[in-house]
Design brief:
10 strands; five-stranded mixed beta sheet; about 350 residues; binds 5'-O-[(R)-(carboxyoxy)(hydroxy)phosphoryl]adenosine; alpha/beta; binds zinc ion
């Protein structure tokens, strides 16, 4: 049973087909995620053509399951929200087409959601209260950024990656060590068993808020090429170096901007090492919030929360909104008071 209003949210920006029913207070009534990991594993990364084909195959059953699990009828929905970018064009198109068709058939408002903003809302799905101003660290397979929000929806991008995202670096290091995609979780686990004995660089650690991970990844490859690398130890050294960079930059951002909350989201926020590193008191007294593990990686519930806020604040989107594979966080667009 749900209280208040509900919407249907759909997410298909990369290799997860997901649908959720979310209440206007961000309570998740149902959340279904169909992962394609097994289909892409042997290829070493997401194959765009395979991803869009699979979204088309499972989209209807995923939506149906979310509706059935929530025990609701289409008439009860206030809107349909969907990720319109960033992401893979064919993958995005599958979710957007489904959402637009449902809005037309059910005569419901259409809400176009930014995937990155969805991640920023993911930590609030379990009732956690974000106090603004807030500092977000988004660490995923596609992105690595520090975002300051003076209030909800008012974002200032402090820094982003100049090359690889952190998740991508984890996955590439895993591939060099012979593990299947996505190797991030494997590297993370392995790193708990090794020793930090390889000298690896901390790129751009003392410079501004931007990140760079390709040099770190290449340094790992050079160690592997020398032969006889101890997998656990190189994983530990890589994770320690990455965490060093992330926590140093976040600490600097916290001491400069004095937020009331720090929110760490995206697939890499699943990492127990990252979680313990950022909650050991080194960020000071600020409240540090993580999403529950099931909402760290891509899901539709986070799109529902971002969709609700957007729908209540700005109303429905135009139904001719296109797919935007390179969409960035809405920065200038939301500078509505100047
Ligand atoms: O947020 P997400 O599902 O997708 C994007 O929006 O990009 O993040 C996926 C990324 C992958 O690179 C994966 O290897 C990484 O998150 N990941 C992890 C862990 N679990 C997933 N990285 C480190 N430690 C983990 N436990
Ligand atoms: Zn994502």
């Amino acid at each position: 049973m749900y209280k208040g209003q509900i919407l249907l949210a759909i997410e298909s920006s990369c290799d997860e087909t997901a649908a959720a029913i979310v209440q206007d207070d961000f309570t998740v009534v149902s959340s279904v995620v169909s992962s394609q990991i097994a289909l892409h594993a042997k290829w070493g990364g997401v194959v765009p053509g395979i991803a869009s084909r699979q979204h088309v195959i499972v989209m209807n059953s995923v939506i149906k399951e979310a509706i059935e699990k929530a025990d609701v009828t289409p008439e009860e929905l206030s809107a349909v929200a969907v990720t319109v970018g960033p992401g893979l064009p064919g993958s995005l198109a599958a979710g957007i087409s489904a959402a637009k068709a449902l809005c037309l058939a059910w005569e419901k408002p259409f809400v176009a959601v930014n995937h990155l903003e969805g991640h920023l809302f993911s930590a609030e799905l379990d009732g956690a209260q974000v106090e603004f101003p807030a500092m977000y660290l988004l660490v995923s397979g596609g992105h690595c950024m520090i975002v300051y929000a003076s209030e909800r929806g008012r974002y200032t991008l402090l820094g982003t990656t100049r090359d690889d995202s952190i998740g991508e670096a984890y996955d590439k290091v895993a591939r060099e060590l012979g593990f299947e995609y996505p190797g991030g979780p494997i590297i993370d686990k392995l790193s708990l068993q090794g020793k930090d004995r390889y000298q690896l660089p901390r790129p751009m650690m003392e410079r501004g808020y931007d990140f760079s991970f390709s040099g770190l990844k290449s340094a790992v490859r050079r160690e592997i090429d020398k032969g006889n690398v101890v997998k656990e130890d190189i994983a530990t050294s890589f994770v320690v170096a990455s965490m060093d960079v992330l926590s140093t930059k976040l600490r600097k951002a916290v001491s400069e901007y004095h937020p009331n909350s720090v929110i760490v989201v995206g697939g890499v926020s699943k990492s127990p090492i990252l979680r313990s590193n950022l909650t050991d008191g080194s960020l000071g007294k600020v409240k540090v919030i993580f999403p529950s593990l099931k909402y760290s990686t891509d899901n539709a519930a986070m799109i529902g929360a971002a969709g609700w806020w957007q729908f209540k604040t700005y109303g429905a989107s135009e139904d001719n909104v296109p797919m935007m594979s390179n969409l960035s966080l809405p920065l200038a667009e939301r500078k509505d008071d100047d």
